[in-house]
Design goal:
Structural class: alpha+beta
Number of helices: 2
Strand content: 25-35%
Order of helices and strands: HHEEEEEE
Distance between the termini: 8 Å
Number of strands: 6
Shape: elongated
Amino acid sequence: MTDFLDLKSRVLQALGDPSGLVYSEDLISESMREALKYFDDYYPQIKVDTITLDSTDREVELDLLQNCKRIVSIISPPDAINHQVEFSPPYYSYFKEAIPWIKFLGTYNPKVGDQFLVTYITTHWIDGLDDAVQTTVP
């Protein structure tokens, strides 16, 4: 994968400033952050994680979803025998202090140990930019 230093070198070459005398690293970094924002809008990074409920509360904090921007869906995991989804409980999602939460609605009563597959959108990263340790841009 490409990291920040590789991309910075390529950008400086494209700008005709291979030594970086005209364009500062701060300017290149800020430009890459802006480009990532646009990239996220058009090519979101979609992740799927499993959550296990640890209480019977109808409101669940999803603090384990790293850099979640939006919840796409919540479904029960496929049955191991016939690989069919059991159900998708009605819910709505919201953010409280930048942490995603869901609230189950309707007749579903959460039980400790219930598992769900959460599909969500997160941001892309470039290794070396803003302390990122991996590059997710293809």
